[in-house]
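Why this split exists: single-chain examples teach little about how molecules sit against one another. For that reason, every record in the complexes split bundles all components of an assembly together and asks for one structure covering all of them. Below is a record exactly as it appears in the raw files.
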Amino acid sequence: MKKYFIIEKYKKRNSRRAKKIHSRNLKSKEKKKLIRKNYEGNSKIEVAEKKSLKGYTKITAPVKFSFTKYPTETIDFISKLERQYENRKKVFVNLSKIIELDYSAIAVLVSVMFTFKSRNIDFNGNFPENFILKKMLIDSDFFKYLNRPIGDKLEYSIGKKNQIFTRANKEVNSELGLVVMEEASQTIWNEKRICKGLQRTLLELMHNTNNHADENAKGVKHWWLSVNHNAKENKVSFVFIDYGVGIFESLKSKPPTNKWFGTFEKIATRVKYGSNDEVLKLLLNGDLHMTVTGEHFRGKGLPGIKQVQDRNQISNLHLISNNVYSNVGEDKYQKLKNNFSGTFAYWELTKSNTNIEWTI
Amino acid sequence: MDNIKIKVSEFSIVPGSRKRDEGKSAHSGEEFRIDYLIPKYLDALEHNVKLIVDLDGTIGYGTSWLEEVFGGLVRAYNKEDVKKTLDFISNEEPYLIDDIKHYIEDATKTK
């Protein structure tokens, strides 16, 4: 007989090993049993789906999913996604139970999905059970891009009536306004018209992202523009999002050499306006520089957008940044319970908005 | 010598950002001021004629572009000369003339 089987030293070792293997097998059996139990009662398709989503963190979208109508719920949803993004965790977005959805929410979804995919983090999701909402999401190309490897670039597709657009280079792109304007005016007035307010709004928002969305440098953060045509109502709606620091954080975070340094603190102490909703109102009305320092600085972008709404060049302007929600058209400014790191703008172009003949 | 005229739409129908480095398709105010406006401004100043800036024919302006062009001009040259020399046409957006005049006034303060 071989030494391996008879010598005490080897016998001990073999028995130790056998025990280990046995215990490992038991554990594995138990594990398999648990997995089997987990899949019990599911069809083969459901089991396959469950298996394919192993390792994903499931995040459920708000049942009423609209950034303009339900900002608190939407910000909560974005925050959950952001946490996963920071930890490089795969995400599965559960959209099945949604009963309300609009383009502001779709813009959030698409932009977040692109952000994940551009960092090679898996992002997946399911369809809403509601057929109309499902169709809306399919039309937005959300699912088309979901299953495709992408960079961080989405181009504007001419002639596509509902779409989202971004530029990989985070620039101010004034040429985009021309294409968007041509198409929007066709939907609204059935002919090309010049809408100067639309171009100003786009420029101010792009400029804001390019200059202020990052605390340390220009041109770091992406912006996203969603353009949605409603031919029935002769209306085009726009959603603009960036995931920068947001208006108020941007004011707070300026270095001492910056023209905006200390602005926020000055407003808070001198005018006794501590809350951001009132600060936003001041900013939009262009009262900030007079109130704070009596000196000039270049912060004319936000008042510039407000002027456009006041002149009836755009309608229904909404802004959300940090913890403030504002329906500028209705002069409503509201402090939110949570914080959106970034700037969100929604506005519409309708038949009643000022426009001029296309002379270009 | 007759007054000199400059049409922004001949520079671009889509004037865009403040600075050149803010985008490849930015059609920036900095570019317009340095490459187009200043040579004509100096010419007008030298011959003691008006420089008429025609703002019509574009699809719109951002505030930063306007401030960079006209505020920037004041930051580089004499405010009174700028005010005396520049004149504007803006039939499509008449309010722009007031805005620009404010930018010219305000720019002096930061000089």
